[in-house]
Amino acid sequence: MNFLYCLILLTRLPLLFSTGCSSFLAQEQPSFTETAIFLQAGQNLGQTFVARDRGLEGVEIYLAPEGQSSAEIRLHLRASPQSATDLAVATISAQNVIAPGFYRFAFSPQSDSLSRVYYLLLEIQGAGKVRLGTANGDAYLNGAFYQSDSPVDRQLAFRLVYHSSALLLGLLTQVGIWLGILLIAIFLFILPGLALVRLLWRGSDAFSWAEKIGIASGLSLALYPLLLLWTNLFGLKLGPLYAWLPGLAALGVMVWCNRNWRPSSFYRDWEKWRRSDFFLPDLTLVILITLVFGVRFWVIRSLDIPMWGDSYQHTMIAQLMVDNGGLFDSWKPYADIQTFTYHFGFHSASALVHWASGMDMPQAVLWTGQILNVLAVLALFPLAVRVAHNRWAGVCAVLIAGLLSPMPMFYLNWGRYTQLAGQVILPGAVCLAWVALEDRHRNWRLIALTWIVWGGLALTHYRVLIFGSLFIVAFSLLALRGKQARVLVPRILLFSLGAGLLFLPWFIHTLAGRITPTFGRQLTTPANATPLFIQQYNEIGDILTYLPAWVWLLLPLCVAWGLWRRENRAALITLWWSLILLAANPQWLHLPGEGALSNFAVFIAAYIPAGVLLGSALAWFLNERQIGKNKLQAAVAILLIAGAGLWGFRQRLGDLSILQHALVTDPDIRAATWIRENTPSDSRFLVNSFFAYGGSVIVGSDGGWWLPLLARRSTMLPPINYASEEGSRPDFQGWVNALPAEIQKRGIGCCDIVPLLRERGITHVYIGQRQGRVNYEGPNVLKPEDLLSSGCFRPIYREDRVWVFEVM
After folding, report:
1. How do strand 150-152 and strand 145-147 relate by DSSP bridges?
2. Going by DSSP bridges, is the β-strand pair 116-125/72-78 parallel, antiparallel, or unpaired?
3. Terminal CA-to-CA distance of the chain, rounded, Å?
4. What is the Cα gyration radius of the chain?
């Protein structure tokens, strides 16, 4: 029943989303007491909104009767509040409004409504009035309620209706675009790794196609930062060639290696695969991968800009790579930072997607993050298969991590893409090291492959490199017995030497910034001297945030079962992640270093051991009962797994949390365009911010943080990296923090603050659609009424909830 229900749900998704994803409904039933708003003769009320699909053919508005009325309620659909041209008109009689509820204003389908901004104007003709449902201003992000042609801090309760045929055509067009993005992803992030595997790993023929792809995705992602680093050392900046050369070379290698293949052998290969024991798990895996891709691509249909603060710095770094054709030092013209020592694997991947697709950088970052979100799940397949010696383990690992767990899907909300990129590489790096360490012979090609993947991992994410290094420690603890030490220790040293030499130039480079010295101080800080903020930041928190309760309950049972079965490889995974947990909590052993590796970083990666160990346990269960030998049992198993995947698909749709995490909205994007076209190029903006990380840095709290990238205008607020890099002046961090601290102390309405703004070169103030309330509930936000009442600021732009003031 669950499977049939989920199948019906999947077929109805387009209809569900025609009135869901791209429409607005107040979070709670609108109140008609103090907040009641009346539509009556002589009054114009309106709402701006964005249609996210084709074929908009109606708007449903929450209305309530107010006495007897024979008036006519008319809706005018227009392009903007300033436009007087009607795109469509719809009317209903007030006599039909007999009870509170949504009433439809229908008009001809708008074929070009996809991602288009509209303004609906309501008026009543005749005697009488009706009540409108409204909600608070932050309930809908891409518009505002208008009274007498002026925006107010409210939102109309409405929802959009789309013509089913036009909607379906639009969705099919989007699917075509997604397939194009998928081809780009294969070209960039799978083909180069496959070619390396084919050239350097002679034993790879024993591995399945899914295992090879899982490892190849990590290899591909590891390759690019190495190319950027070493070409930069020789003064080469290849720009778009970074995207095209590896993929084209890999394509050539794959064609050459398969030069003896003939189309006539396709049917033979197909029949051989179909009759093998691998067909059913492979078929199930294809179904699950389709669902994983589908849900990750679906949820970003309505997003133009990646979310939260991390996404801003990632987008800026990737944009600087594109601007410079490779690596860089200076962050100008976007920020007054003079060093770049951050890991850059994800940013190089985003630059590649930009070069290969032509997307603007925010979209490239968003799509790259979702591509890697899929690859991070697929990368678990080879690791799970290696632990359980069974493809069903890999299938179940993909199911658990990709569809049944909120992580890594939830990374989208945080923009936690750099760690995600590291976790695409990590499973493959572990698998390759594992194979090489157990190999009886010294296979130099395989060793070279491990150098590439581990060197690239070091450049992609420093903390995930620690995760990987602790696997080597765990492996050594279990394997160093007697004569094995004489073989194992030199081989580990050889791996470390090769990967370390590849990473060494960048490690030396990091000494120019603050990352390495800060990490060193964290490692040597005694447990009893750790600052309170670090202790609070390192708290584990609610573990149900990271994995569902049933996973946490089953995980220790699977570990115990594996130990009872004497599954040494499962024991190795358990020991590995136990060491990682201890590394994040050295204070448990009264050791220094708390905070150097955070519990947050560890627990959002908990889907890795959970997927591998639970997947292995399910594979043991299926194998013991020889499920794959009986066709009926195998069909039931596939249906159950696919049904669970469809249920998980539905659950993952709810992981997107735009209201909580989106800094930039459509009104901010329009305002940025206006700023770029109507303000001097040397304008500098004061934007909403608040102190974070124990008061050490300031971070943005609405779309104003993005103005350097969206409007090409500077602000007083650099990306959060300013705390770990060197700035344009001594004590750059303190200098940046001083201005918002002073504004918090005096208040923006005090004209005494204006000379300080002029000293910093600030010419304008920006208040975004989110009004400085993203992740911040304190009192220190820029309020329009404070600036208006001070007499020191002049409003020059106001649309929806966005304000731009000029400093007078």
Report:
1. antiparallel
2. antiparallel
3. 67
4. 29
Would you give the DSSP letter of residue 276?
Answer: S
DSSP letter at 779?
Answer: S
CB 155 within 8 A of CB 137: yes
Please give the Cα distance from 134 to 64 (Å, whole number): 11
Statement: the pTM of the whole predicted model exceeds 0.90: yes
Q: Dihedral, CA atoms, 47, 52, 58, 60, nearest 10 degrees? A: -60
C-alpha pair distances (Å), 587 with each of 269, 591, 604, 709, 785: 56, 5, 20, 41, 49
Whether the CB-CB separation of 414 and 308 falls below 8 Å is answered with yes
Q: How much of the chain exceeds pLDDT 70, in percent? A: 94
Nearest to 665 by CA among 362, 214, 249: 362
Q: Cα separation of 585 and 124, whole Å?
A: 65
State which H helix or E strand residue 159 sits in.
strand 158-162
Q: How many angstroms separate the CA atoms of 251 and 443, rounded?
A: 25
> Which residue from 361, 347, 366, 351 is spatially nearest to 421, judged by alpha carbons?
347
Residue 90: helix, strand or coil by DSSP?
strand
Q: Is the pLDDT of residue 206 over 90?
A: no
- C-beta atoms surrounding 70 within 10 Å: 10
Per-residue model confidence as pLDDT tens digits over 384-441: 999 999 999 999 999 999 999 999 999 999 999 999 999 999 999 999 999 999 887 7
Between CA 180 and CA 351 the distance in angstroms is 17
Residue-level pLDDT at 625: 67
Euclidean distance between CA atoms 266 and 275, whole angstroms: 14
Q: Give the SS3 label for residue 152.
A: strand
Predicted local distance difference test score (pLDDT) of residue 275: 78
Classify residue 291 as left (phi > 0), alpha (psi -120 to 50) or beta: alpha
162-203 pLDDT, tens digit each: 999 998 998 899 999 999 999 999 999 999 999 999 999 888
Locate all alpha helices (DSSP H) within 330-443, ordered by sequence: 345-357, 361-378, 380-388, 391-399, 411-414, 417-438
- Write down the pLDDT at residue 744: 92
**Residue 382 is which amino acid?**
P
> Residues with Cβ < 8 Å from 662, sequence gap 6 or more?
141, 303, 305, 307, 770, 774
CB within 8 A of 130, min separation 6: which ones? 38, 39, 63, 64, 65, 66, 69, 73, 94, 97, 124
Q: Which residues contact 440 (CB under 8 A, 6 or more apart)?
A: none
- Whether the pLDDT of residue 10 is over 60: the answer is no
Q: 3-class SS at 149?
A: coil
Q: What is the DSSP letter of 236?
A: -
Sign of CA dihedral 295, 301, 302, 304: positive
